Amino acid sequence: MNQNKNMLAGHKQQLLTELTAGASREELIWINGYIAALVSGNELPVTDDAVRVTTAQKITLVYGTETGNSKRVATDLAAKAKKKQLQVKLASLDQYRLTDLSREENLFVVISTQGDGEPPVAAQKFYDHIHKNGFRLDKTKFSVLALGDTSYPLFCKTGEEVDAQLEKLGGKRIVPIRKCDVDYENDADAWFEEILQSLNQQPVTHSAGVPVTVKADTKSNKKIYTGTIVGHVNLNDTGSDKETYHIELLADDVDYLPGDSIGIVPENPSAIVEQILTVSGADRNTIIAFKDASYSLFDLLKKKVAVIYLHERVVKKYASIVQQEIPEMKMDLLTLLQLYPLQNKEQFADVAAILPAQSPRIYTIASSPSAHDGEVHLTVEKYVFTVNDETKYGLCTDYLSGLSIDTQFDFFVQKNKRFRLPAADKNVLMIAKSTGIAAFRSFLSERDATGATGKNWLFFEEEKFTTDFLYQTELQDWYQTGVLNGISLAFSKDGAEPLYVQDKLRAHGKEVYAWMVSGGYVYVCGEKDPMSVEVEKELLSIIETHGGLAADKAKAYFEQLKEEGRYSKDVY
Amino acid sequence: MSDKSPIERIKEASDHLRGTLKESLQDEITGAIREDDQAVVKFHGMYQQDDRDRREERAAKKLERLYTFMIRLRLPGGFLTPEQWIAVHDIAGENSTGVIKITSRQTLQLHGILKSNIKPTIHSFSQAKLDSIATCGDINRNVLCSSHPKESAIHGQVFAYADKISQLLMPKTKAYYEVWLDEEQLLDKKEEEDPLYQDRYLPRKFKIAIAIPPNNDVDVFANDIGLIAVIENDVLKGFNIAIGGGLSSTHGNAETYPRLATLIGFADTEEKVLKAVYEIATIQRDYGNRSDRKLARLKYTVDKYGIDWYKAELEKRTGFALAPVADYTFNSRKDHFGWHPNHEGLWYYTAFVENGRILDEGNIQLKTALLEIAKTGKANFRFTCNANVIISDVAEADKKEIDTLLATYGVARNTEVSSVIRKNAMACVAFPTCPLALAEAQRYLPSLIDKIEGLLQKNALGNEEIIIRMTGCPNGCARSYAAEIGFVGTAYGKYNMQLGGDRIGERLNKIYKENIEEPEILATLDTLFANYAANRNLHETFGDFSIRQKWVSA
Questions:
Q1: Which residue has the higher pLDDT, B460 or A134?
Q2: Interface contact flag, A466 B62, Cβ < 8 Å
Q3: Hey, are the CB atoms on A94 and B28 less than 8 Å from each other?
Q4: Model's pTM, two decimal places?
């Protein structure tokens, strides 16, 4: 390697030179300003392992499978590529986000053909999509591995069609299509070898995202990003008692690290806002000042202030406005208006003034900056509860679960410096229940993308295996490609007796203790009580049992783990 | 292609069908078992399947396919006691979809069993003295026998052969008991040395059926070995032996074809019959194709080496010569619906079960009816090769009680009012669970029959017992190639229409129209039925008429 005496590593120096060489004066001034803004914020990465690997080539390997052969081939090839320090995004075509296509730089497709010459069912949407017009793949390099069976007349027809169509859309074929018969292993390896060679000869290119103006919240100095929903799916299957949404946001230049959260200010349901307006008789278009800005009354009620489950303090203020006796308890604004009506509609201006600002809800990020460039993913469980026999939903989770693709909303990043991945070679033991998996999907994505060598072991609890195993196929892929070294699952509603994550910890107590004493890092994410309480009890008991320590000594060891930053939790 | 197929390597490496099944059951990250074990588990009577209707949606949810298992019982001749029926009923309710499926091979299978529920299911079966050993896989499968005791005064004597043959061709491995029932591991491996199957088992599935003329309800010629009982004056004289039947084929592979078994001779004693059956299997074991599974059934071995060679090799191995084929006559291939007595005066009620699916649906509370009948303890249960159930061995005195139950739960009425065409029809499972299905079958056939009934009525053919069968792929589980009108799925919504099969199962059908959808199916049948109604000879079956009209070649 060419040692460079500059501050910047060789490739960065090269990028900077490339970036500045042909730039106009105006562009240089803009870049200068952009970088200055970055420096003045305290959002810069602080540790080495957090520096994103940008040297590795990124490839996307997608497969369309009917019998599982294509999946097998693609998974094997992905594992090989990872060993060669390539960043690989592996996806089944039925899970691949089609809107990502035009952003792919290196796209490799493994696809089989059905007996009648048709694509596998799982690849049908992709197949149809690439046969539509309206987008180009001008910056995409691609190649296709077609699986088939020569005893059928339309041998590898789907592969051929995909290959031709990707070229038609502007893609650059870097390796010719390879068609394989039922014994495909050698052909697949040879195909991939050719790709790797071809990639080695290609210069590393980076398509820099276009910087966007980032709004700043003047008070908290937090950057406010606008995210656009590009993926939204309920991860629980029919028959589950839960609804857990996986939400993917596109947010250019969003800056976070695995372990961070985002804050979202939820909007109030329009139906409720409308009812408030009707019952109060207030004019929706009245302009009202609120915290250095002005809003229409409708916007204020919808986006800025809390109207549900108002604090006793607020209820008391309302009582003094309407001059009525109202019990001191939490109440919705609508209920107040209905039970204790305003004396006149003009009073509503006073009521609006007492409404507290809507507070942000915090969600742990489920994506990783290295694996999901320019994106933030969330895992949000729709919170359902019952009040007086009436089913109610958590305001923000209800809001998020009801959003549709292309909706935009603002958020900020909430740093969590106490919940960070350790150095790349350290072992990590992760314990999660339900949405707590979010942090570890982020961790695993990051460690996968950066090729971290430390081992990873996940303990995960949910209700039912067939319907509630969040991110099952992703975890399986990580397990098969060696990113995830261990996975221990507890499904609390499957057996006659409930099984919890602490039970699985106990069952693996000896190994868990071995991970701890050999320098491993332990993380807990998800429900605070009882999950994290029970997990801590169990960890203490494991230290006692397998470390042969008395209770006080075990406790001291556990405290030591915390001090060393080897035990962290993000619980709620 | 002389290399052994991958399945052959899996069998040999499986340590007598243990594979890594125990490890597969421990893999908590997936509801599937390991790939090699998916081949091994078939020998234990199970298929791994998944709900194909749900694949796309679950993939979007980042959930794997909804894997479940189908378990098929070993019921030689298709017989259950009432206690056993109650056990199957309860197990089906707890661990499966709840539907009990009568197969086209006289047994029962349950679908939708999660990996974690397999062991409890097999354990419950075991307590009812039931097992699923060798009901799938490259091994002798469930042995069939003409189901209705009224066929002959010595039905019981012939029926006993089904169990004898099943026992004779059982694998010696104790893997089933170790893996599923947690029995102790064998210390002395010699106990499971298997002179018949060795460590390679058969090249492909192996099917045996026993027919009692004149009814060929078992489709005896569709089997690798067909035995036809020869009975004179209520005395069993022996069996005609036919070999090389098998209906599966592969679309687009001209080397594959359905084939009816060829008669090779007659054996008179039990010892000789069993010996012959055993050695027919050993020849197939030694000479069957082990490199290409599509060409591995006994029928291809017969056609490769010649029927004379096979017979000569058999006589060499058994040490006796087969006698010439004895006279026999088949005149039907059907179930005897309703009440019929046997020679001793015991009563039998054959109830119509559409596509073999036992469930409670609308006014037809078949599942409840069978449970209530079983609870009386006054009837046994037999299953037919047309996937119907016979309430069996009912004493004259108990007949009324059973009759009342059949009426109460709508079973009698359904059996009486269903058209003959519907009662003779059969479809395989296909979607959503069968991984091989190209087109719908059991979910679709009932609605197609509704429309065909209309066409037959229109042409005044409502009482014709035309045999219609449908399979969702060319493998022929519902024996569609041996139907007068066969539908073989080629792609979703598309079928090859096959004509010219005879009514008694001695002539296969041939392709009449390829890849047609429902409108064309109905339009075609309408024309054919009109022609048949106008131009048929007296008693001429639709299958025979199809040949005479040269719609297909004979």
A1: B460
A2: no
A3: no
A4: 0.83
